[in-house]
Design a protein that fits this description.
388 residues; nine-stranded parallel sheet; five-stranded mixed sheet; Ubiquitin-like domain-containing protein; Leu-rich_rpt_typical-subtyp; Leu-rich_rpt; LRR_domain-containing
């Protein structure tokens, strides 16, 4: 979990005739959580609920999953810091309920390849790496005939030269579960490539030549799950042939506005990242059918999401969301799968959104065998059926 500095304390209004003390204008206290000491500053009239909202981006624990304990007593959401006798210098303990976290972060799985045996000098290392990556003639001939270059789980640290020898014959390149750290400019020589699968490698922001990728005019599937990417460049928007895009389990903090150029994109999966905001241009991806944004740091969604009239499945679990775009149910009339597990959105909130009845009818029709959807008071919205 990456460290984040706390948000600034709420602005207080003061006048020269009323010189309030620090204790009256701001309460500066410490929250103990998971071995950390988190400094918090808030108005003494802030409710405990407000404090939990401040703690959410600092701890990734949703407010309803937090228990604040002071002097052996669990603090009630409706009370204020003043009423709870929490003063500057106080120490408050935070206990988190399991499973009520937003943005679980990257889940990196080690490739099942055997470790590379390295020599004692650089020349020996290079020779052994080239030997390990050597492709026999039979494989090369098969690749050229079928167009499928299958190199998953081969303990590779770079893309073998034989791949480039296939040139325009290559339709699918699968080098998942290796230790490849570079996508060179030469990737553009595979001019007929339709699918590029590079899950679970060592890819970073600087190791991908996007100029080469953006020249692939027939690329429909790009999968780079489980790498070490923190940002996607504007050049992504140049690959307008894309229909499926997979960047789950990385460290992305945002999506480029140029993603709106991908108007043929049907599947977008960027779950388990650190994304806190979505660009308005996401609404320009008018062909989207399935979107997975689960386990990120989203607090709100843009209204332009309602432009996705072909959307059928939207996964939003494990985020800090408290509401949905007001037009979602009225304009996304094909939406039948909505996963809101471990968010702040309750059934009461959903029922107040225009078009809810139509969506609810669609989801019930889709899951006729799992109609135990029950609402008790303001219980959270349960879409467990959509997980199966």
């Amino acid at each position: 979990m990456e460290d984040r500095s706390p948000p600034p304390p709420p602005t207080m209004t003061t006048t020269s005739s009323h010189q309030d003390s620090d204790a009256d204008t701001s309460v500066n206290f410490t929250v103990k959580f998971s071995g950390r000491s988190i400094p918090v500053a808030a108005s003494p009239d802030s409710s405990i609920r407000d404090v939990k909202s401040l703690l959410q981006p600092l701890t990734n624990v949703l407010p309803r999953g937090q228990k604040l304990i002071f002097k052996g007593k669990i603090l009630d959401d409706s009370t204020t810091l003043r009423a709870s006798e929490v003063k500057s210098g106080a120490k408050v303990m935070l206990m988190a309920s399991q499973g009520l976290h937003q943005g679980e972060g990257p889940i990196l799985k080690a490739a099942p390849a055997q470790p590379i045996v390295r020599g004692t000098n650089r020349s020996s290392n290079v020779a052994k790496e080239k030997a390990a990556a050597k492709v026999d003639k039979t494989h090369l001939e098969r690749w050229k005939i079928t167009g499928v270059v299958a190199l998953a789980e081969r303990n590779l640290e770079f893309i073998p030269d034989e791949v480039w020898a296939c040139g325009p014959s290559t339709r699918i390149l699968d080098i998942s579960n290796n230790s490849v750290e570079c996508v060179p400019l030469r990737i553009g020589s595979l001019t007929s490539m339709q699918k590029l699968l590079m899950d679970a490698n060592g890819l970073s922001d600087q190791s991908i030549n996007w100029e080469g990728l953006s020249s692939l005019k027939f690329l429909t599937v790009l999968s780079m799950n489980q790498n070490d990417l923190t940002a996607l460049p504007p050049a992504l928007g140049a690959i307008t042939s894309l229909r499926q895009l997979y960047f789950a389990n990385n460290k992305l903090t945002s999506l480029p506005v140029e993603i709106g150029h991908l108007n043929q994109l049907e599947v977008l999966k960027v779950n388990n990242n650190r994304i806190s905001t979505l660009p308005l241009q996401i609404g320009d991806c008018i062909s989207l059918v399935e979107v997975d944004l689960s386990s990120n740091l989203l607090l709100e969604l843009p209204e332009t999401l309602g432009n996705l009239r072909n959307l059928k499945a939207l996964h939003l679990s494990n985020n800090g969301l408290k509401s949905l775009p007001g037009v979602l149910f009225t304009t996304c009339i094909q939406l039948s799968t909505l996963d809101l597990h471990n968010t702040e959105i309750t059934a009461d909130v959903l029922r107040q959104i225009e078009g809810w009845e139509g969506f609810d009818q669609r989801r019930r029709s889709k899951h006729q065998k799992q109609l135990d959807f029950r609402v008790v008071g303001s219980a959270e919205f349960d879409e467990s059926a959509d997980k199966k």
